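From the methods appendix. Each design record in this collection lists the tokenized structure first, followed by the designed amino acid sequence. Records were kept in a plain field format so they could be parsed without special tools. The example shown here is representative of the layout used throughout.

RECORD:
FOLD TOKENS (445 positions):
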């Protein structure tokens, strides 16, 4: 027994020695590849305040604090005007803008991982990241097309195949990327490559999934997109204004410049101005009508009879509020659009929870010691710096609609009907016809 133990302990066979050397080499290589955060930050594109030379010259006499305030104010105004222009063009422009913003945000997040890729010479990271972006967009945007344009797509023979097997095709595309990643694995860098693989998927979850939800919100009516976006913008602007002029009490360590004064002032402003924006939009069909494809017109249309959600309703106030209201109006009831009540819920979320999207992004940037995700917008940083809260808000609105507002869509039901066999479609038609006749909703000739 002792001889066996000695041989085991002292075994220096080539096989054992090779395994030990390989494991040691792997560990040493990983340790050598780990850079300090400060060193890694040097390789990451840093956000800088790129300001036009003319504007820099005009503001040269101001202190850094006031110079930054003026620059942020000017470009905030430009973005708001540009946003209004896109709304005026129509829903297709909004969808295209959403896609462009999505791609730019993904690029800014992936650039940080790309810095690691370049440092260690890892293969295919950038190509794989963009491949997965295209694949996920094919899946999500295909789902939207099938939900809202199924009737048109099914009329085209070659597109019908894409509709029928859409999810299977999407899965196959993903599997190609998965196999590609496995084949790209390099000895000594397994841990780093799997970390970057997870990095890409988290970026897709944050950016692509949320933009898909934004498109769904747009199809429910522009008001479900414009109002939440406006609330985030109002909260961001007013929180900055209140913090700039009155801020003294730090709010959270992740963002030292955020103050309680800005948080509270921005929240109150968001509720009040959000209700005002909602009240104005409720009066226009362009904003409240769902976006649907009209077979008669052969295009998308937003012409409808507004639902009860966007028509004034009379509400009886609680006894505690009737006394106060009678002093101003002489009535114990109040007339308002029901959407305003839902708008109140969205404004509270955007004021209280919305900023945490910004705090999350601040923590992410601090982890890599970068100032901004990019330098596209002077005074603001990158696109992701401006849309970090928007994605969180878009998810809330989509969940809110599906939970409290949305009913079964005729377009989605038709899509399911078209997937049935012809004899099943005829059976469904006859059953529905008999039901409508029995209820007196269909005249029999």
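DESIGN:
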């Amino acid at each position: 027994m002792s001889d066996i133990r000695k041989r085991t302990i002292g075994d220096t066979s080539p096989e054992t020695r090779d395994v030990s050397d390989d494991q040691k080499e792997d560990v040493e290589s990983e340790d050598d590849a780990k850079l300090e955060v400060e060193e890694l930050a040097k390789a990451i594109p840093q956000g800088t305040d790129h300001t036009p030379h003319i504007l820099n010259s005009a503001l040269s006499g101001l202190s850094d604090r006031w110079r930054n305030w003026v620059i942020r104010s000017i470009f905030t105004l430009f973005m708001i005007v540009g946003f209004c222009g896109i709304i005026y063009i129509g829903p297709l422009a909004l969808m295209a803008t959403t896609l462009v913003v999505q791609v730019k945000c993904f690029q800014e997040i992936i650039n940080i991982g790309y810095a690691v890729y370049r440092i260690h010479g890892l293969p295919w990271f950038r190509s794989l990241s963009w491949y997965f972006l295209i694949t996920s967009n094919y899946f999500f945007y295909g789902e939207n097309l099938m939900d809202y344009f199924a009737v048109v797509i099914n009329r085209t023979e070659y597109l019908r195949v894409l509709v029928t097997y859409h999810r299977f095709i999407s899965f196959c595309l993903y599997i190609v990327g998965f196999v590609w990643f496995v084949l790209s694995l390099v000895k000594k860098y397994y841990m780093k490559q799997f970390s970057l693989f997870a990095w890409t998927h988290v970026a897709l979850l944050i950016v692509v999934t949320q933009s898909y939800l934004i498109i769904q919100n747009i199809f429910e009516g522009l008001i479900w997109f414009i109002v939440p976006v406006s609330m985030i913008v109002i909260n961001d602007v007013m929180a900055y204004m209140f913090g700039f002029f009155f801020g003294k009490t730090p709010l959270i360590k992740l963002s030292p410049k955020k103050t309680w004064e800005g948080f509270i002032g921005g929240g109150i402003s968001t509720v009040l101005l959000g209700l005002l924006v909602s009240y104005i939009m409720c009066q226009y069909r362009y904003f409240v009508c769902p976006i649907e494809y009209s077979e008669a017109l052969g295009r998308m249309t937003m012409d409808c009879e507004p639902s009860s959600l966007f028509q004034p309703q009379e509400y009886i106030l609680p006894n505690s509020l009737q006394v106060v209201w009678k002093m101003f109006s002489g009535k114990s009831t109040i007339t308002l659009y029901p959407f305003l009540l839902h708008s109140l819920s969205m404004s509270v979320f955007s004021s209280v929870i919305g900023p945490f999207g910004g705090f999350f992004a601040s923590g992410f940037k601090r982890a890599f010691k970068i100032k901004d995700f990019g330098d596209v917008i002077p005074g603001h940083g990158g696109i992701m710096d401006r849309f970090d809260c928007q994605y969180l808000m878009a998810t809330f609105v989509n969940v809110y609609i599906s939970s409290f507002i949305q009913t079964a869509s005729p377009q989605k039901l038709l899509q399911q009907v078209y997937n049935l066999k012809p004899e099943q479609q005829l059976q469904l038609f006859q059953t529905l016809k008999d039901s409508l006749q029995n209820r007196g909703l269909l005249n029999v000739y």
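APPENDIX NOTE: Confidence is low (pLDDT under 50) at residues 1-36.
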